Write a sequence for this structure.
């Protein structure tokens, strides 16, 4: 429900109750979930003081005030955000996405996304097949994963690229730094991926249900028994596939805040300086370094490579230094 710029205010007269329950009674025009979100975002005050805890108690006689934020435009707006474009023609473009950039608008990320930058760069020249919030987006990579993406500027390009993604006929490769000594020199991880039954915000390898997932990998560099740099190629494209498969097999990605372990580096025999730097690396060490595909219109095969970003290059240097001590 989109609200105009109005203020809702009422005095709670019943017995003490949770803030979210009291609000649901006083302001029936708002859903319970909407009220919880407004509380968590700091848009609800009790007797003039903001409360961000839905379970906080409201006592009889207290005044509850709800000030909804201004409505958000239904369609993303263009924003002047720099893009690292490595190739562009009238039908598509290939770009190098930095870690930290969300691909398309979603809850909590209405602005500052790749889509906002693309709209500013391309104007109306983006394929609309993906929907109003995902114009031009044929595939995506996680917010904190860096690397190459291809974007469709025309519908014919969108269809042609989507067919190649569905058939897994593109040449795509990732570099991942994972904990532990991965053996042998190459192999594959297979396991259906679905929502975790323990934490619905996470993905997991599931015994039943989920979707088939296959990750092929090969070792690129070893750092003793501490860590391994691997190249990964996806035979399927499931959410968090590389991160989930390696974590499931005992090799979570270095820096992964969701599937890794914050205490992973404590037992390694590195200097405090090296350990300190590794502990400061706060994203999954994953980079989409290569993408190749047949141009959906000209049919010419195009291939692009991306150098590791500075943070991962420095991270690898720290591991090299640590293993030489």
């Amino acid at each position: 429900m989109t609200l105009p710029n109005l203020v809702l205010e009422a005095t709670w007269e019943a017995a003490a109750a949770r803030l979210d329950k009291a609000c649901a009674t006083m302001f029936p025009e708002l859903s319970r979930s909407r009220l919880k979100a407004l509380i968590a975002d700091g848009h609800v005050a009790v007797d003039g003081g903001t409360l961000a805890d839905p379970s906080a108690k409201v006592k009889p006689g207290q005044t509850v005030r709800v000030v909804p934020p201004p409505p958000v435009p239904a369609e993303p707006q263009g924003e002047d955000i720099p893009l690292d474009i490595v190739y562009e023609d009238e039908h598509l473009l290939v770009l190098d996405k930095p870690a930290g950039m969300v691909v398309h608008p979603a809850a909590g990320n209405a602005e500052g996304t790749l889509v906002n930058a693309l709209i500013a760069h391309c104007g109306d020249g983006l394929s609309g097949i993906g929907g109003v919030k995902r114009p031009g987006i044929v595939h995506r990579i996680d917010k904190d994963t860096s690397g190459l993406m291809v974007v469709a500027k025309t519908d014919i390009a969108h269809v042609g690229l989507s067919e190649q993604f569905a058939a897994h006929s593109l040449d795509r490769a990732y570099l991942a730094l994972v904990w532990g000594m991965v053996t042998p020199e190459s192999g594959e991880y297979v396991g259906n991926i679905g929502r975790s039954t323990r934490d619905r915000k996470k993905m997991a390898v599931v015994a039943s249900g989920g979707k088939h997932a296959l990750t092929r990998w090969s070792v690129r560099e070893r750092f003793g028994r501490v860590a391994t740099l691997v190249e990964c190629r996806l035979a399927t494209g499931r959410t968090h596939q590389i991160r989930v498969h390696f974590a499931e097999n005992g090799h979570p990605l270095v820096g992964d805040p969701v599937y890794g372990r914050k205490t992973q580096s404590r037992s390694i025999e590195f200097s405090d300086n090296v350990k300190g730097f590794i502990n400061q690396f706060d994203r999954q060490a994953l980079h989409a370094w290569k993408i190749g595909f047949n141009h959906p219109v000209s049919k010419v095969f195009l291939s692009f490579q991306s150098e590791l970003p500075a943070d991962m290059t420095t991270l690898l240097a720290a591991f090299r230094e640590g293993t030489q001590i």
